[in-house]
Amino acid sequence: MIETPDTYYTVAQKGESVIREKASKFIGLAVPVDSETEAKNTLLGICKKYHDANHHCFAYCLGPMREIHRFSDDGEPSGSSGRPIYGQLLSKDISDVIVIVVRYFGGTKLGIPGLINAYRQAAAEALDHAGKTEKIIRLKLRVNFPYETMNEVMRIQKEEGLVILGQVFDNNCSLTLAVRKSKVDKVLSKYMRISNISAFIDT
User: Fold this and answer.
1) 3-state DSSP helix/strand/coil percent for the chain, to nearest 5?
2) Do residues 154 and 197 make contact, with C-beta atoms less than 8 angstroms apart?
3) For 19-44, how does the pLDDT look when each residue is reduced to its tens digit (9 = 90+)?
4) Of the residues 135, 166, 193, which one is the last residue of a structural domain?
5) Which of 8, 31, 90, 200 is the most buried (most CB within 10 A)?
6) Is 1 part of a structural domain of the chain?
7) Are residues 59 and 151 in the same domain?
8) What is the CB neighbour count within 10 angstroms for residue 130?
9) Residue 18, beta-bridge partner list
């Protein structure tokens, strides 16, 4: 049986680069993000900070398989900026990140090949500066159980090192746990051996 990966890569920290091409200045910024809202807010903040720049081109992707992704040329010729930035996210195999390249036009047109190279280089150097770190894919597991089985339920939580995301302790108790994807079947099996409880992936 082929196991599906339960890790992927993102940037370790914020990264920045500055390159110059025929008097134009390109500032590359790589920022870790966890949601589209965070990506959009990051972009708004950069546009505000560099409000006097000519272009704020970007690309971002989210999720283990880069399920959510978007890029923009922000007024540059089509395909000359957003796509080369996104191409660096693909080539470096990372996600949960937005890369913004801010351009100050220096008065000399670079042509589409020149723009592609400049935006690609600015993005690549910002990502290199940010570094790479592994991110574990975790799923949410809900366990509903009667109070008298509390000790058994909590023993498994401790044994497997499961992170508690939420809990309700009453006559009818509930735990929401973060479980590493590769351990889900094992953890579910352990919980289902306990009488009078239900355990399932909470989507």
Assistant:
1) 35, 35, 30
2) no
3) 999 989 999 999 999 999 999 999 99
4) 135
5) 31
6) no
7) no
8) 25
9) 27
